[in-house]
Amino acid sequence: MILFILCPRSECNGVFTAKAGTLQSLNYPARYDNNLDCSLIIKAPKDSIIHIIFDAFDVEFGQDCEYDYLMVNIERNVHARHCGNAIPEDLSISTDILEIAFITDMTEVGSGFRLSYTVISAKGQGECRCTL
Ligand SMILES: [Ca+2]
To answer: Which of 14, 30, 88, 123 could potentially form a cystine with 47 if both were Cys, beta carbons 3.0 to 4.6 Å apart?
Structure first.
């Protein structure tokens, strides 16, 4: 039984290849669970810009976001780490893979996060300028 509880919940992991979508924490808008280690990956075509807008954010606060936190990872590097109640700023990043990781500890939960993303082709914009 203990092993089952510690296993990452499958609903909190996923790979998203649609050009636009909404990602949210497990159970949102109800409170998320303790002991989460979630990975939501947006996979876009090459030469893309991934645009992210946070709609809601309520994650246990810590001075260094050491308890619960959301990380935006670009090519396995941490781009940003967020916790607390302030809605993070919009992001526009040139990349074809962006990971939203959501980690929680063993106590205190919040309603979590919800964000929407869109994938824009950087290449298309360049081609458009060339034909002018
Ligand atoms: Ca917590």
So the answer is: 123
